[in-house]
Amino acid sequence: EAGVVQSPRYKIIEKKQPVAFWCNPISGHNTLYWYLQNLGQGPELLIRYENEEAVDDSQLPKDRFSAERLKGVDSTLKIQPAELGDSAVYLCASSRAAGVPNEQFFGPGTRLTVL
Amino acid sequence: AQSVTQLGSHVSVSEGALVLLRCNYSSSVPPYLFWYVQYPNQGLQLLLKYTTGATLVKGINGFEAEFKKSETSFHLTKPSAHMSDAAEYFCAVSDQGTYKYIFGTGTRLKVLA
């Protein structure tokens, strides 16, 4: 079974530029999560999708961050414009919708550096 | 709000020695509890989890953890450390009935030869 796939793995951009991260969850996993992991910290949830619906986006800074999950499979997280403080690792995770608690499977993350 | 505390951001043990990584949570209602491991440049991998039932939980790679309600703790142990155990370990909690994980700040384990 293929794991959660994320791309790119690394991204370096200048501040004020836009950036996008892509995630392909494990096949059959209806729930998808985007997390932010700052250096030396644990992951923090940004947004959770159930199929194509964002059911929890309370921690997503909506002034500059956006996300979509068209067709309830792949997802894209976008930052526009990026700020220096956005430098972090962005993790995508997925889980089956049924069963509580459901194990979350994590991708390798995208390490963003904003210069 | 639920919170998780991992005592010791860095822990060093000798190869073959006992590994003990500490995790305490704040909720008065027992949550679901998890330990994840993160190797460099990789995503998080589930080691073990506690939901209900037996309070001593066995996971992968020889790790186990014990849920102690009276101490609001879920410490991770391994009897004998191996060099390959060097990684960062995260404790996480999820309130029953929610899917939201709250992660601790992590403990980086170093194994000395």
Question: What are the key terms here?
Answer:
heterodimer, A: 115 residues, mainly beta, seven-stranded mixed sheet, four-stranded antiparallel sheet, 11 strands, 0% helix, B: 113 residues, six-stranded mixed sheet
What is the gist of this entry?
The complex is a heterodimer of chains A (115) and B (113). With 115 residues, chain A is mainly beta.
Return the structural class of chain B. Answer: mainly beta
Question: Could you tell me the mean pLDDT of chain B?
Answer: 92
**Class from secondary-structure proportions of chain A:** mainly beta
Beta strand % of chain A: over 45%
Helix content of chain A: under 10%
Low-confidence stretches of chain B: none
Largest pleated sheet of chain A? 7 strands, mixed
Main beta-sheet annotation of chain B: 6 strands, mixed
The shape of chain B is globular
**Principal-axis shape of chain A:** globular
* SSE arrangement of chain A, N to C: EEEEEEEEEEE
Assembly annotation: heterodimer
Number of strands of chain B: 12
- Unreliable residue runs of chain A: none
Quote the average pLDDT of chain A. 92
How much of the sequence of chain B is in beta strands?
Answer: over 45%
Measured as a percent range, the helix fraction of chain B is under 10%
Write structural notes for this entry.
The complex is a heterodimer of chains A (115) and B (113). Chain A contains no helices and eleven strands. Chain A has 115 residues and is mostly beta strands. In chain A, strands 2, 4, 5, 6, 9, 10 and 11 form a seven-stranded mixed sheet that branches. Chain A has a four-stranded antiparallel sheet with strand order 1-3-8-7, with no helix packed on it. In chain B, strands 2, 5, 6, 10, 11 and 12 form a six-stranded mixed sheet that branches. Chain B has a four-stranded antiparallel sheet with strand order 3-9-8-7, with no helix packed on it. Chain B has a two-stranded antiparallel ribbon with strand order 1-4. Chain B has strands at residues 4-5, 10-14, 19-21, 24-25, 32-38, 44-50, 56-58, 64-68, 73-78, 87-94, 101-103, 107-112. The mean pLDDT of chain B is 92. Chain B starts with a strand and ends with a strand. At the A-B interface, strand 5, strand 9 and strand 10 of A face strand 6 and strand 10 of B.
